[in-house]
Amino acid sequence: MSDKPQPPYWTVIFPSQRTTEDAEGYGIMAKRMVELAKAQLGFLGMDSARDASGFGITVSYWQSLDAIEAWRNHPEHLHAQALGRSKWYAEFEVHIAKVERSYLFRYDK
């Protein structure tokens, strides 16, 4: 799980259902988007998982709404979004929320 600062901060929650189309191209683009997001001003971290049926959820963490807006409008990210709509996703949602409180449990034996 990503290391995040103490709240408050902002999060983008992205649940999605993948198609079976172009798995290799999707993997390449997903890796590039992670690299690119990490380089964005205001990016704080990311958690992501996908199951065997293609359902996934990515949660990214940001310092501000302005940082989220800049990421949404980044030219390479806009290109990835267009490809996602045209072939990689059967369905997705985007939720933006402010995190006011957070805690972590870690089992240490």
Structure overview:
The radius of gyration is 15 Å and the shape is globular. The protein is of the alpha+beta class and about 110 residues long. Strands 1, 2, 3, 4 and 5 form a five-stranded antiparallel beta sheet that branches. The protein has a single domain (about 10-100), classed as Alpha-Beta Plaits (2-Layer Sandwich). The chain is about 35% helix and about 30% strand. The chain has helices at about 25-40, 65-70, 75-90, and strands spanning about 10-20, 45-50, 55-60, 90, 95-100. It is built from three helices and five strands. Strand 2 (about 45-50) and strand 3 form a beta hairpin.
Residue stretches low in confidence (pLDDT < 50, at least 5 long) are none
Q: What is the succession of H and E elements?
A: EHEEHHEE
Largest sheet: 5 strands, antiparallel
Structural class: alpha+beta
Shape: globular
Distance between the termini: 18 Å
Strand content: 25-35%
> How large, in whole angstroms, is the Cα Rg?
15 Å
Helix count, DSSP H or I runs of 4 or more residues = 3
Q: Which CATH-level-2 architecture?
A: 2-Layer Sandwich
What number is the mean pLDDT? Answer: 95
CATH topology: Alpha-Beta Plaits
User: Can you count the beta strands?
Assistant: 5
User: What is the helix content?
Assistant: 25-40%
Domains (count): 1
Per CATH, the class reads Alpha Beta
Kindly list the characteristics that best describe this protein.
single chain, alpha+beta, Alpha-Beta Plaits, five-stranded antiparallel beta sheet, 3 helices, globular
